[in-house]
Amino acid sequence: MEIFLRLRTLLKPVSFKTLFPGFLDKPLIGIDLGSYAIKVLQFKDKKGNLKSIGIYNFPEEALTGKDKREYLVSGISILIEQLKLKQKEVAICLSSRHVVTKRIEIENPQKGEIHSLILSEAERYIPYNLEDVHLSYAPLRRKGNKYEVIIAAAKKEIIAEYIDMLKEANLRPVVIDVENFVLANAFEACYGIPEKEMLIIDMGATKLNMVGISEGIPVFTREVAMGGIDFTKEIQNKFGVSFAEAERIKIEGVKEKTEEEKLQEVFLKVITRWFQEIKTAIDFFENTTRKKVRTIYLCGGSSRIIGLKEALAKFLAKTVYMFHPGSKVKYNPNYFDPKYLDYLSPQLPIALGLGLRTKADV
Ligand SMILES: Nc1ncnc2c1ncn2[C@@H]1O[C@H](COP(=O)(O)OP(=O)(O)OP(=O)(O)O)[C@@H](O)[C@H]1O
Ligand SMILES: [Mg+2]
User: Fold this and answer.
1) Whose CA is nearest to atom 20 of ligand 1?
2) Which CATH number is 16-228+270-361 given?
């Protein structure tokens, strides 16, 4: 098994696609193994026609407990059964904290030489014994006689855990991607290649995942261990309620005026921490690219927090949009409720990016 990057300019290996047209074009089932919810998305074809979509929210004990494996296996199995999915081949991704990536330049490579060059570069940059990792690379672009290549390495033991877990759910991962690249690919599939510097921020339950794109390429990434669960926990403390009740308050709000003020205090406390981290990341991105970030796109369940988008735009003095893949997916409204898709949309980019992968990618 190889972790497999797919960037726009990836030179595809020769595949059997031309011998068996259609077969290898079949999209894989995209599974986003989030910490709060598993999201599944499957396309009918490469044109982006939706076949199935589903979400499984973990029970509370899975969110607060340590060992999640059993919940993951049963959550995936429940979703696959509910959606009546027959296909076994899936695409998943690893969070960037499990993957070491490095962009390198190779000058004037000769045919057949690239692999050994990559290996010797990887020896220098990957902080593990190469025997213990799965290594993958993809050409990014050509600059004169230089090739810019991205190398990714993930520990074999981590990949083995995922394979094993999916096997238990009776599935087979054909593609294991890197979350940041999936996000960038999903964005590109929905909105085209961004011409200007921009940042995507996936606001999940346990992390803020930022991907900076410059000259159409994801060149910057930062994962901060903060997310929607912090907000729920702060509400829990301030209001003295259960986790479930705090989650409800966060999503539905409160009625009493005094309670509203309390909630606003929590909101400000939490988002101030998030915004500081985002600002630091943007400063770094802008300093390294020497270009200003023009726009920011938000996704992830926590981007639904009312007032957050506007507060961030004001704090950064930048334009902030919602990354809204639901509006880009083609579907039959007789089978899928447009309102449901619209609601789910901010949580979908990763599953969508993975659902775009086919067997031919391998
Ligand atoms: N309407 C809403 N208002 C505020 N928060 C919300 C809303 N809907 C969902 N959330 C929060 O979004 C989070 C779940 O989002 P998402 O599915 O993107 O996370 P995840 O992918 O499972 O987590 P991670 O990426 O951190 O592993 C939860 O913290 C949930 O409470
Ligand atoms: Mg997520």
Assistant:
1) 34
2) 3.30.420.40
